[in-house]
Amino acid sequence: MHNPYQSTATSATEVIQPPIKRPLSVWLLLLVLGVMTIALAIGTARSIWLMAAYPSVMLSRFGANTALFLALVLFGAGALVGIARRRQWGRWLGLLVMVALTAAMFLMPDTTHYANAAQQSGGFFGRTILMPSLMLLWAYRFGFSRKAKRYFAD
């Protein structure tokens, strides 16, 4: 006999499950991505203000650069929203941001002046081995760990 007033859940544990907490790796990415997005938004707003103040001097390339920065701001804001709302696409956008940050570490030239060869080799080790390894660990914990999979599960 079917009871129409019975709960649709199969067990009490499904009904009384506490909400899943955000892993530390998600909090860190939200912080880093938020700061980067705010900085890009401020820079883009200043560029647009400069273009409005001096329209005859500005080149078309300057407008293209501003459009690129505006697209990056929208991408960052979208990634923030996706990660905060636990969407799968937010998880993949977050991983894409981490890959871009790691690639930027390799592509940016090292302009540090070292006092001796020991400091130079330490800087090389940190830049080419230690930091990418930490980024790889962070990306794993953000996108593929058990806690992250539970966090982003729909």
From TrEMBL:
The keyword Transmembrane applies. Keywords: Membrane, Transmembrane, Transmembrane helix. It comes from Massilia frigida. This is DUF2569 domain-containing protein. The chain crosses the membrane at residues 26-50, 62-84, 91-109, 121-140.
